[in-house]
Amino acid sequence: MADDEQDIILSELDDEELTLQMHDDLYDGLKDEIMEAVHILLGRGWTPYDILTKALVEGMRIVGIDFRDGILFVPEVLLAANAMKSGMGILKPLLIETGAPRLGRMVIGTVKGDIHDIGKNLVSMMMEGAGFEVTDLGINNAVESYIEAIEREEPDILGMSALLTTTMPYMKVVIDTLVEKGMRDDYIVLVGGAPLNEEFGKAIGADAYCRDAAVAVETAKELMARKHNQQGTV
């Protein structure tokens, strides 16, 4: 850590300065500082939901923009996401207690035959950073694993990832099974991974193909808003 940064005493900053400092610390992936700042704001009477949205989610939104624009890269975003997770660890039980609103729920996993997970992990972390509740099924998921998880978790969104051209087609198996079971329309299905493209996403019946984690968050928010609007007009 640079000398000038050591001079910053978080507890001496006012609320606005501290929030901005948290955005910077998240950007730099400073886990301990984020945890300290979360405790300070809680001590000042901030609600867990306000800390989540104004400090952590807003900080990750800035990280997401720079990731999308190629200013930040995967290792830096993973560090930022880990710092965000440490703050979330403190807030999660408090958010559950207060019944704070969530943007939505997501189940995500890499498909059967595929053991790649860096991209998927990044999407999970960025989605959590945006205020979604995420259940990560890990790698090598058969269709049964997805079906069980969505029946158990009742998410709004199902996310599938593949990094191999040989495992990509398995996404269609999952979507076709949802169609057969009459469940397809209950979920927003997002797909991603290096060999995929928009055309493939459309061909297999997904709601959207997401190029990277930042796009996944933007797309999820957009489709959730649309879903709520449709429900509102019913």
List keywords for this structure.
methyltransferase; five-stranded parallel β-sheet; metal ion binding; 11% strand; Cobalamin-bd; 234 residues; alpha/beta; Cbl-bd_cap; Methyltransferase, Methionine Synthase (B12-binding Domains), Chain A, domain 1; metal-binding; globular
Overall description:
This protein has 234 residues and is of the alpha/beta class. The chain has two domains: 89 residues, Methyltransferase, Methionine Synthase (B12-binding Domains), Chain A, domain 1 (Orthogonal Bundle); 130 residues, Rossmann fold. Helices cover 59% and strands 11% of the residues. It contains ten helices and five strands; from the N terminus they run H-H-H-H-H-E-H-E-H-E-H-E-H-E-H. It has a five-stranded parallel sheet with strand order 2-1-3-4-5, with helices on both faces. Helix 5 crosses helix 6. GO terms for molecular function: cobalamin binding; metal ion binding; methionine synthase activity. Keywords: Cobalt, Metal-binding, Methyltransferase, Transferase. Pfam families: B12-binding, B12-binding_2. This is 5-methyltetrahydrofolate--homocysteine methyltransferase.
